[in-house]
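Reviewers of the previous submission asked for a worked example of the structure-prediction workflow described in the proposal, so we include one complete record here. The input consisted solely of the amino acid sequence. No template or homolog information was supplied to the procedure at any stage.
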Amino acid sequence: MPLREFSREKTWLLPPTLEELIPADHPVRYVAAFVDGLDRAAWYELGVAPDGAARGALAYHPRLLLGVWLHGFMSGMRSSRGLERACRDQMPYLWLTGWQHPDHHTLWRFYRDHRGAMRALLKRTVRVAVAAGLVDLAVQAVDGTRVAGSAARERTLDPAALEGLLERTAIAIDDLEAQNAAGTDPPPGRLPRDLQQLEALRERVQAALEQVGTEGGPARVNVTDPDATLQKARGGGFLVGYNAQAMVAGVVPARPDDPREPGGLVITAADVTTDRDDHGQLLPLVAQAAELTEARLAQVLADGGYHSTANLAACAEQQPPVAVLMPDPQAPHPSQPYHKDRFVYDPETDTYRCPQGQTLRFNGQDQRRDGAPTVRRYRALKTVCAACPVRAACTTSTTKGRAITIGPDDALLRTHRARMATAAARTAYRRRKTLPEPAFGILKEQQAARRFLLRGLTNVRAEWALLAVAFNLRTLARIWRTTDRLDLPAAA
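From that input alone, the workflow returned the following structure tokens.
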């Protein structure tokens, strides 16, 4: 077939305009409209003066800088140097910046100074989605994922290793100082770079030693990022990083029966912790999601890592109560026919009846060693249990009858276990795998969030919040591009 004409020396009689550079439905247009729609109060909440300073050199507009960072986090570009290159050779960024080219120093200073306040943008994205009727507020799911920190696992040291590193660092510092003092040149105005790095390392090691030496402190500390902890990784093993949390809701389809209807997810709450388990994260995420959506959480789905009687009680005490569905790791298995949940209570006689029909009577109270409330003990007669044909399957005691202990939370646990056993609960719980798990997959694979680039819990929280903002903007931009359910934000 004939070939198209090809030449790299063509010129335009009339140069193209910026509007011709990208399609009319490109996601970067939604980013620009979102940033342009921020009012003065929103800018001041971010710690940015929207009009700039009255004097001094000309500065890049904050709308340009914020737009670059948001689009970068949406597309997996989260380094200031990478964004600098993108602003020079990638068409969406050239359009977004109006053909301006901020360098990485400018981009980094804006991000460093304002990233802590960018959590306010998460609230804005959530409320835009809620106002448009996109968020399925009936069901939300919470989960956590382990994200590696900007630190090597080999730098997580115990006290003995820290002492050895401190000794080697001191020797290296003495050696460098001796080399600098041996010459005839005048002393430099500032410490040499190598000496600066060793001094900083010594300070970090000394701080780590103080941390492991405190009562109740960690057994090991990472010298590079002291806030990063050893987290259990998926598939076995450990990584040095953080426990990133998110509450996720689905997008309400406009036409549920139409297979072409675009779906989507919205992160309604996000946080990061150094805890190795999830028990303490449920209630803060529930509270944050209620605040950002300005609506009560009707039903929350969580995995067994969040299960605790304290969480169940706190959700039940909220007004109105929050219905939480989460598996109980201690729930009786079908292979446990003589679990204490199989024993039936008779309130009139204050006794329990075992599956074999025998009676367990009140036998006193036990004080737990961990300071928890006392439990009531019920026990069957030794002679009765000795003659029972299923004794071996029911109890291992050979000197006493079967006993069960009932704490103040047992009624709550039994009620929750009974609810989780219903067909309705099992059907509702299946939705959990369609909410946070796909969201984490998008964050890690498409937004390059497998590793945090910043160090320190405060900085990592800001980074995770901005990743959640970018995730929501991806959802909003897709809905704006493919449906008529969402308009471009109006400029303030």
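The first helix runs from residue 27 to 36. We consider this example representative of the routine output the project will generate in years two and three.
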